[in-house]
Amino acid sequence: MNRFDGVKVLLTGAASGIGRATAQRLATEGAAVYAVDVSEQGLAETAAAIEGTVTTRLADVTDEPAVIATVAAAAEALGGIDVLVNVAGVHKTTPIETLTVDDLNRLFSVNLVGTALFCREALKHLPDRTGVIVNTASLAATQGNPFMTAYAASKGAVLAFSLSLAAELAGRRIRVVPISPGAVDTPLTRAPDMFPDGLDLGYFSKIRSYYGAARPEQIASAIAFAASPDGAYFTGADLRVDGGAHT
Ligand SMILES: NC(=O)c1ccc[n+]([C@@H]2O[C@H](COP(=O)([O-])OP(=O)(O)OC[C@H]3O[C@@H](n4cnc5c(N)ncnc54)[C@H](O)[C@@H]3O)[C@@H](O)[C@H]2O)c1
Q: What is the pLDDT of residues 153-165, one digit of tens each?
């Protein structure tokens, strides 16, 4: 039996990496997926890769009017929203000496503000007792990662936001699960500016998983667990999926 038969899912960051793998996984398990991203081409590729039910919408998660319209359109198209999965995110590697206010604003806008806006709007539709929110934090939130101060801080904010939201929504029995992947092999980590030349990255060899980087599908399966009835007692706790890299 499919865990997501009849389940209506709103998903951000669906055009690439973990988000695309999550769209595929949830649709394969029966979900109707409303897939949001800023990348039109990426969304088209995601839709083409899915056999199940998927609707795509171009939206920037930092644009408040666009988020309000997108969530309303998703609820209309799907006939409600059962699950919100926030995956959209951006990364920046830079030493503190060259960190700019623009970097900080962009990281916090996409990673934290985008997540918070989608939660606020989706909560107008998520049903009490069965509604679920999964927010993508990062192992960087709780593990010191050199040259990633601003990214780590933005993900720490996503984690803190999610834990508090879980407590706030416990009375409605709406679960909120922050998920913290370690390194995942996606376009984000393959980008040439992920590990710029000249930085001493030796520390990363100490915190690398013996299992290597995760495949996006391995994070998608954890998101599917968190969002499904299998995760019914899982809320307000960081779900680390890091191949033991934190030990
Ligand atoms: N890859 C990793 O090692 C890793 C580890 C921990 C956490 N994460 C987090 O997982 C999430 C997905 O990462 P990924 O590796 O799949 O990256 P990715 O770059 O492959 O995908 C990120 C997606 O977010 C979308 N996006 C970016 N800004 C947006 C905006 N303003 N509005 C709407 N969509 C936007 C991009 O277009 C892209 O499709 C991110 O939040 C990332 O921080 C990734």
A: 999 999 999 999 9
- If one counts every other C-beta atom within 10 angstroms of the C-beta of residue 5, the result is 10
Which atom in ligand 1 lies closest to the alpha carbon of residue 214? 3
Active site residues: 151
DSSP label at residue 127 = P
Residue with tokens 């996409």: 110
Q: Is the shortest distance between the CB of 21 and ligand 1 below 6 Å?
A: no
Q: All domains of the chain, ordered by start, with CATH?
A: 8-241 (3.40.50.720)
| Choice from 134, 188, 209, 239 to test ligand 1 binding pocket (greatest atom count within 8 A of CB) | 188
Q: What is the pLDDT of residues 191-242, one digit of tens each?
A: 988 888 888 888 888 889 999 999 999 999 999 999 999 999 999 999 999 9
Handedness of CA 202, 203, 204, 209 (dihedral sign): positive
Indicate whether residue 190 lines ligand 1 (CB < 6 A): no
Ligand 1 binding pocket includes 16 (Cβ within 6 Å): yes
